[in-house]
Automatic annotation (TrEMBL):
<feature type="transmembrane region" description="Helical">
    <location>
        <begin position="45"/>
        <end position="68"/>
    </location>
</feature>
<protein>
    <submittedName>
        <fullName>Amino acid permease</fullName>
    </submittedName>
</protein>
<feature type="transmembrane region" description="Helical">
    <location>
        <begin position="417"/>
        <end position="435"/>
    </location>
</feature>
<feature type="transmembrane region" description="Helical">
    <location>
        <begin position="12"/>
        <end position="39"/>
    </location>
</feature>
<feature type="transmembrane region" description="Helical">
    <location>
        <begin position="327"/>
        <end position="348"/>
    </location>
</feature>
<feature type="transmembrane region" description="Helical">
    <location>
        <begin position="197"/>
        <end position="220"/>
    </location>
</feature>
<feature type="transmembrane region" description="Helical">
    <location>
        <begin position="282"/>
        <end position="306"/>
    </location>
</feature>
<feature type="transmembrane region" description="Helical">
    <location>
        <begin position="387"/>
        <end position="405"/>
    </location>
</feature>
<dbReference type="InterPro" id="IPR002293">
    <property type="entry name" value="AA/rel_permease1"/>
</dbReference>
<feature type="transmembrane region" description="Helical">
    <location>
        <begin position="89"/>
        <end position="115"/>
    </location>
</feature>
<dbReference type="Pfam" id="PF13520">
    <property type="entry name" value="AA_permease_2"/>
</dbReference>
<keyword id="KW-0472">Membrane</keyword>
<feature type="transmembrane region" description="Helical">
    <location>
        <begin position="354"/>
        <end position="375"/>
    </location>
</feature>
<feature type="transmembrane region" description="Helical">
    <location>
        <begin position="232"/>
        <end position="253"/>
    </location>
</feature>
<dbReference type="GO" id="GO:0015179">
    <property type="term" value="F:L-amino acid transmembrane transporter activity"/>
</dbReference>
<feature type="transmembrane region" description="Helical">
    <location>
        <begin position="154"/>
        <end position="177"/>
    </location>
</feature>
<keyword id="KW-0812">Transmembrane</keyword>
Amino acid sequence: MPSEAPDTSYKISVLTGIAIVVASMVGTGVFTSLGFQVLGIQSGFALLMLWVIGGVIALCGALCYGELAAAMPRSGGEYHYLSQIYHPVLGFLSGWVSATVGFAAPTALAAMALGRYTQSVWPSVSPMALSIGVVLALTLVHALSRRAGSRLQVVITSVKVLVLIAFIGAGLVVATPQPLAFLPHTSSDWHQLLSPAFAVSLIYVSYAYSGWNAAVYLTGEVQNPQRNLPRILLIGTAIVLCLYVGLNFVFLYSTPIPTLTGQVEVGFVAATNLFGVGVGRLMGAVIAVLLVSTISSMIFAGPRIVQVMGEDLAPLRPLAKVSRQGIPVRAMLFQLALTLLFIVSATFEAVLVYAGFILSLFTFLTVLGLFVLRVRRPDLPRPYRTWGYPITPLLFLGLNGWTLWFLAHDKPLETCYGLLTLGAGLLTYFLGQWASHRFAGLGRT
């Protein structure tokens, strides 16, 4: 009896795509990283400019990825683009990073932040047990039904955006303004924008914006991707830019910097300072619930990269197998195992910096590939062309490259871990190639 064909009739709409982008971005970074940024930066102007510049980088990146996604409409994101533009080995390394770090680490970070926020409200809760339980439950939902997973994503992301808008509005009304200038008054305000502390902090911010490219991993499942993907990327990123600047303005406008310094749960701290302990605890609980949306989006998108890699590479072929509903369940379980490993074995800040460095490196190479592709394949159909080319990609490359340089200098241990991850990926690639040739040779004999 023939097996049932996968159900591929359901396609991701523009609304769901925007929800995935917004949910991927609005999560761990914006609710946790400000406490680390104020350790090295005390200027309100410089702190707010971090989020403006981070948003500009993300928008420039979204414009560039929009052209690549429209010209090469296949799921897989950077893995697909870099394989086609440069060489399959670079594409594999990108996919390796996405599979082992790009989604598993952010999922773990969001789950760890959810546990920390929940414990700030209910001290008896075990953060690790809650983190693990939420990841397991959401993986089960997405493994059973693509339609149910999409609907869940739209609902919880809509709630997240509405809650944040309400928080920003209420914070502006009830806040006691802090003695902090958000416009430049002295030359030192401008000098801080060129400091190593600003560059390293920009990695935290870039990580907070890092989901702007989430929809490209699902290209093959999007309705009319050549038309809709650029719209999804740009609209989703613009929404998040506005939310991030507004949210961090409220944090800084309402809460003394010493109170925020070194804190992971900055949303809870700011809400407590704004509304009192009772409402602060409630807001901490709400933020914990909102992080469910981020975890869900990562679990939804990440396994598609492993699936595409499995379709192209024989050693990973078992991970490309999909269920009768067309869901890459094996790849999902692979990502689940890595996520749980990060949760139980690493500290929050180390995972954040490590993930931020290695992910920024591959987005840098992908945007650089836009220039390479235009030179090598000028006749390739491009339904969408990057607005502001070549200024927008050059701006992205300049800001991103500057940040990577300072991060490598200031955080050498996390940088080395990132390079070791690439080394492990390179070894895996060549072992896989050797095994493929050996098995092929045995088959002929």
